[in-house]
Amino acid sequence: ATPEETALKAKDKLIVHSPRPLDLETPPKLLDGWITPTARFFVRSHFYIPQSEAGRWRLVIEGLVEKPYQLTLAELERMPQVERVVTMECAGNGRSYFTPRMAGIQWRKGAVGTARWRGVRLRDVLARAGLKADARHIAFAGADTGTATAPDFVRSVPVEKCLHPETLLATRMNGVPLPLVHGFPVRLITPGWEGAASVKWLAKQTANPEEVDGFFKKTAYRY
Questions:
Q1: pTM
Q2: Cβ burial, residue 210 (10 Å; 0-12/13-18/19+)
Q3: Exposure on the CB side of residue 167, measured as CA atoms within 13 A
């Protein structure tokens, strides 16, 4: 079975907007508690879910840093861990009610959920690399790749947000290892920002002098 098929079985109470790439919405009546159970947590995917192996995963830290390096999952899990309760909402939540109508997944009210995310503060990972003085933004790229002519999913986050103590590289969700559909083995968690900034299947982060002005910053999430 594909990761999408496995997730569809586990999340069979959710509204299917797209089976592949997988986009699932939580019926509002199921959002009846403070913490959203993982089986009820919405899913937003731009491309097919990548297969990931914990032992082979590497996070590349590069760009405007003093010491570029690669981090393994075992090394990440040996660093000081913190847990935060964070609400995540797709930037397009409520899009079906927009006037004029906007292109994209026609979410109603259920592209939102709250979970316990556990992992490492991003600033601790960046401290090992040593940001240079002219680093102003970090570009985050996931392991999922664009289909046909679509560009890869890359999001840019200001250094100030990256160094905030609440910004995490999460490896666990609601007390268990991060499910594949939610970004296993590691995803970025940017509290207070739209869900698109919490990049899943994190593979590379690049320190840049300015914001990366790619499709998923310039076009896809603006109107």
A1: 0.93
A2: exposed
A3: 21
